[in-house]
Design a protein that fits this description.
Keywords: Membrane, Transmembrane, Transmembrane helix
CATH topology: Immunoglobulin-like
CATH architecture: Sandwich
Number of strands: 9
Number of helices: 2
Radius of gyration: 25 Å
CATH class: Mainly Beta
Protein name: Nitrogen fixation protein FixH
Order of helices and strands: HHEEEEEEEEE
Organism: Helicobacter jaachi
């Protein structure tokens, strides 16, 4: 009987397996391009270059104004407070314990911003956006908040899609300066 060597076949099989795995990973990478974050409505490189100016404008806004966001359902009942924070100061990770203040929101909500001011300058302009937590370039413009009363700004009735989202508040003040706040929300359909 002749002694057969199988190791050359094993080497070729391993090499072919490696080529197949590399081509599969390249195909997956081409179908799923890199998602660029646009937290401050600009490219990451530009934001990195100007982050000190952004922080300075944010601190200047915080010295002039204090905002208190209130989320109401369609029956005007106040819902749990989802804090709006400056994205640069956001915590690095979500705590393991669930936050008792942050509860799922219904699809139909209204956002009210109570503004306390320490200045007599022109009032700021509040612009609201809805951003996807999972997909790039899914920023939806929800419009400008209207002044309802003295220092109270209100969005129109918002019908939000189900899922996990970020409400992004861009505030323009002193004609050309901007401040940014965002809040993570989870929207559920409560009508069922």
């Amino acid at each position: 009987m002749k002694n057969k060597n199988y190791w050359p076949h094993a080497i070729i099989a391993i090499l072919l397996f490696g080529v197949v795995m590399v081509s599969i990973s390249i195909t997956i990478a081409l179908k799923n391009p890199i998602q660029d974050e646009n937290t401050y409505f600009g490219k990451k490189r530009d934001v990195d270059w100007h982050i000190n100016d952004i922080i300075k404008e944010q601190n200047h806004f915080n010295a002039l104004y204090t905002i208190k966001p209130i989320i109401l359902d369609k029956n005007a009942n106040e819902l749990a407070h989802n804090p709006f924070i400056f994205p640069y100061m956001a915590p690095a990770h979500t705590p393991d314990a669930p936050d008792s203040k942050s509860k799922p929101l219904p699809q139909d909500i209204t956002l009210h911003i109570a503004l306390q001011t320490n200045t007599d300058k022109a009032p700021p302009i509040f612009h609201l956006y809805l951003d996807s937590m999972h997909e790039a370039n899914k920023l939806q413009d929800l419009g400008i908040l209207k002044k309802e009363a003295d220092n109270l700004y209100t969005s129109g009735a918002l019908h939000l899609p189900q899922g996990r989202w970020k409400l992004v508040l861009k505030i323009t003040y002193d004609n050309d300066k901007s401040a940014y706040f965002e809040s993570e929300i989870f929207v559920e359909n409560h009508d069922e």
